[in-house]
Amino acid sequence: MDKINAMNRVNRIIRHPLWRTYVDEIERLEGERRFCRHGIDHLLHVARLAYLENLENGMQIGKEQIYAAALLHDIGRSLEYTEGIPHEEAGFSLSQAILPQCGFGGGGAEEILRAVRSHRNKNVAKEKNLSGLIYRADKLSRNCFCCRWEKECDWKEEKKNREIRR
Question: CA dist 139 to 53, 102, 143, Å?
Fold first, then answer.
C-alpha cells in the first residue's frame, strides 16, 4: 500500500454515515458538559497517543488498526446516554456494522472490535496489543493538570493525569 492511501480505510470510517451520526449525537448530548468530552478531538488524541506508544515500543501494530479502534472506541456513548447501554457494548455493535463497509475484515476487524469492547477493562491495561494501547491512550488523553473543572471532577485522584507522560 502506498503512503498516500495508507489511511484509506480509516478515512472511510470518518465518512461513514453511521459513524458521523453517532459522533454528531455525542457532540450534541455533551454540549453543556463541563468535564471530559468524547468528540472527535478526544478520539484523535487517543489515536495519536496510541500510535506514539506503538512507535516508541516497536509494537508494530498497523496505523490503520490503531486509528480505526480509536475512532470507534467511544462511538456508543450516545446510546449509553439515551438508552443506558454500556458504551463499550454499544460501540462494539456499531463497529460491527461499520468496519466491513470500510474494508476491515477478518482478524484485523476482530482485533479492532476487541479493543473497542475492552477499552474500559482494567485487565487489558498492561497488554502489549491493540486493546492495551487503546486502554492506556484513552486514560492518558485527559489533561487534568490544566482542566478548570478538575476540582469538581468525580474521577478518583489516582486516575487523574497530573503531568504529561507521553
Answer: 13, 27, 10
